[in-house]
Amino acid sequence: MTETLESRPRRDRRRGRTRSVPIPLLVPALVGLAFLLLPLIALLVRAPWRSLPEQLTSVEVWEALRLSLLCATAATGLSLVIGVPLAWLLARTRFPGRGFVRALVTLPLVLPPVVGGVALLLAFGRNGVIGQWLDSWFGITLPFTTTGVVLAETFVAMPFLVISVEGTLRAADPRYEEAAGTLGASRFTAFRRVTLPLIAPGIAAGAVLAWARALGEFGATITFAGNFPGRTQTMPLAVYLALQNDPAAAIALSLVLLAVSIAVLAALRDRWMTAS
User: Fold this and answer.
1) Is the Cα torsion angle 163, 164, 167, 173 positive or negative in sign?
2) What is Dmax (Cα atoms) for the chain?
3) CATH number for domain 54-274, candidates 3.40.50.1970, 1.10.10.10, 2.40.128.20, 1.10.3720.10
4) How far apart, in whole angstroms, are the C-alpha atoms of residue 71 and residue 151?
5) Contact 186/110 with Cβ under 8 angstroms?
């Protein structure tokens, strides 16, 4: 069998890259990989596999799982309603202070979640900037309620959606919207009939990412909504509580969240698991 002139240099280049990995880089790289994998392997090794069905079928687990799925889905829906227009505003328009607004949008990504919960209390608490008016005018109390869980999860998860959708919008060709405008479509009609179908995959990826982040939210939720079984106790809060009294139950609950995370990674494999 003869080799083509194109395949041989390509194979040689692959071999050359493998042989040329310097030891001072290879060793810390392997240590870093092991550092990321060992905790997950330990979780699988120490999992109570025999009692796992009993642990996962308890009423408390199903209640926490139901509440987690419900609140994470509601937070993702709310993020879609207000986050997609915000991403479009950042990607398609120019206004004074746009860079500052983008920095504010990304702030929850680096803000400690507990600080986010305190900020939510100061804004929507009974004595908060907006919460006092909601309580006195409409009798609406948001802290320590299921709605408070949704707000806390939206606060920490929506930036993931906005950043993802904004990147997709910047990559999309704006000439399609301009062509729709020349045919008489308003800017909102062009957004609804042209832009949304064009960026649908990016919106779906951002929604999955936001949903996963909302599902794993802990700090802002326990600060703003508390930890009440059946009302505000989500899976991460149940893991925290179980770790103090029943470590085996905490490991079982952690396995559920690990399985969800792997499922999300598999759903976004084209975005996160390819080199280009």
Assistant:
1) negative
2) 84
3) 1.10.3720.10
4) 9
5) no
Map out the domains of the chain as residue ranges: 54-274
Q: Give the three-state DSSP class for 140.
A: coil
235-245 vs 59-92: helix crossing angle, rounded to 10: 140
Which residues fall within 8 angstroms of residue 265, CB to CB, at 6 or more apart? Answer: 272, 273
Residue 205, token pair as written in the block? 């990826």
Q: How far apart are CA 220 and CA 120, in angstroms?
A: 8
Chain-centroid distance, C-alpha 93: 25
Specify whether the CB–CB gap between 71 and 79 falls below 8 A: no
Kindly report, residue by residue over 78-137, the tens digit of the pLDDT: 999 999 999 999 998 888 888 899 999 999 988 898 999 999 999 998 888 998 898 889
In this structure, are residues 229 and 60 in contact, taking their beta carbons and an 8 Å threshold? Answer: yes
pLDDT in tens, 181-232: 888 888 888 888 888 898 998 899 899 889 989 998 999 999 999 888 888 8
Query: Which candidate, 121, 142, 264, 149, places its Cα nearest to that of 218?
Result: 149
Alpha-carbon span 267 to 209, nearest angstrom:
10
Query: What's the chain's Rg over C-alpha atoms?
Result: 24
Question: How large is the angle between the packed helices 247-267 and 59-92, nearest 10 degrees?
Answer: 40
Q: How far is it, in rounded angstroms, from Cα 224 to Cα 151?
A: 9
**Alpha carbon 46 to chain centroid distance?**
27
pTM of the model: 0.82
d(CA 47, CA 39): 12
Tokens matching residue 12: 């040689």
The answer to whether residues 40 and 258 touch, using CB atoms and an 8 Å cutoff, is yes
